[in-house]
Design goal:
The chain is α/β, with parallel strands linked by helices. The chain has two domains: 214 residues, P-loop containing nucleotide triphosphate hydrolases (Rossmann fold, 3-Layer(aba) Sandwich); 58 residues, 2-Layer Sandwich (Alpha-Beta Plaits), CATH 3.30.70. It has eleven helices and 14 strands. The strands form three sheets. A six-stranded mixed beta sheet has the order 6-7-8-3-9-10, with helices on both faces. Strand 12 and strand 13 form a beta hairpin. Helix 5 runs parallel beside helix 6. It starts with a strand and ends in a 6-residue tail after the last helix. The model has no long low-confidence stretch (mean pLDDT 90). The chain binds adenosine-5'-triphosphate. Adenosine-5'-triphosphate binds next to strand 2 and helix 1. The site of adenosine-5'-triphosphate (ATP) has 11 residues, from strand 2 and helix 1.
């Protein structure tokens, strides 16, 4: 698929801060692309340049091969992190207000169904829950039937159930052949939704690819977890790469068969053995040296 949006040699210099440091991106049509990174990495600045809200200091952004212009504004949808909803309006009135901003729109009834808003249509937007608010904000971002949708930390502050419901909604939107660009602090969310991710740190992209590819590229081994009591002092002297993590011993190995044999021969109880897969959170820490912030 050709890229729907490309950024070439993008730079954003603020006084004393190089927020975006010569980055290149080409986001293929129809995928969900995740931009991840620690606080201050430059994600919001990059996204806002791609959205056409800010101009870069240098570099170019092209949408379907053309500079961002009137066509882009008609074809892009943005779910802002902190959209100020007009006070004293109901959910229905808010949808109608946004509908009037575009030439081409999706029938509101379709968005109400897609985003499960039917039960709260007549409610004041100040009196809806966090999950309902995010669904409304997504409906507003979809009102012009955009081809490219930006979601900036769409599930921050939602409880786990509301977050999962929102993921289902994003998958539904994606299945309609839309391209989604997402920022998130939740690695689980990136793994669940993104076909491709880029991890930013200090204004640069430090890792990019499909989650699966990045995990196998960075981690060729697996982690065995054995409860402390089951290992009971038998691991020392085996020459294994073992660390104590809470009440577990974690052993990294790329020779699983051999390591298991070694443990059995040395009388380690494997009844409660678990094999832990590497996660995007491990990758994030590995490439940025920082913990994922909540
Ligand atoms: N308008 C501005 N003026 C000056 N510096 C800015 C401005 N906006 C952002 N910065 C700085 O640019 C750097 C990147 O900020 P940005 O908000 O893009 O990071 P981020 O990755 O989105 O962080 P977070 O996850 O905390 O939202 C930071 O050092 C920030 O302080």
């Amino acid at each position: 698929m050709p890229p729907i949006i490309t950024a070439t040699d993008l730079v954003k210099q603020y006084p004393g801060v190089l927020a975006v440091d010569h980055i290149d991106l080409a986001i293929p049509t129809g995928i969900c692309f995740g931009l991840l990174g620690p606080n201050g990495a430059g994600k919001t600045t990059t996204i806002e340049i791609l959205e056409g809200i800010h101009l870069p200091t240098s570099g170019t952004v092209l949408y379907k091969g053309e500079p961002l212009g009137a066509r882009y504004r008609e074809e892009v949808g943005i779910q802002f992190q902190h959209t100020a909803l007009q006070e004293f309006l109901t959910v229905r009135e808010t949808l109608e207000l946004f509908e009037r901003l575009y030439h081409r729109t999706v029938p509101i009834a379709e968005l109400i169904e897609l985003c499960s808003l039917a039960d709260i249509l007549d409610r004041d937007t100040r009196k809806i829950s966090g999950g309902q608010r995010q669904r409304l904000l997504l409906a507003l971002a979809l009102i012009n039937d955009p081809e490219l949708i930006f979601l900036d930390e769409p599930t921050t502050g939602l409880d786990p159930q509301a977050r999962r419901n929102f993921w289902d909604l994003v998958k539904l939107v994606k299945s309609r052949n839309k391209t989604i660009v997402l920022t998130t602090h939740y690695m689980e969310e990136a793994y669940a939704l993104c076909d491709e991710i880029a991890i930013m740190d200090k204004g640069r992209i430090v890792s990019q690819g499909t989650p699966q590819h990045l995990l196998s590229e960075h981690f060729g081994d697996v982690i065995l977890q054995i409860p402390d009591t089951d290992a009971a002092g038998k691991l020392g002297g085996l020459g294994l790469s073992a660390i104590q993590a809470g009440d577990m011993h974690e052993i990294r190995t790329n020779r699983l068969h051999h390591t298991l044999q070694q443990l059995i021969e040395n009388g380690v109880n494997l009844d409660h053995l678990r094999i832990r897969a590497w996660t995007l959170e491990d990758l994030f820490i590995n490439v940025t040296g920082k913990k994922v912030s909540p």
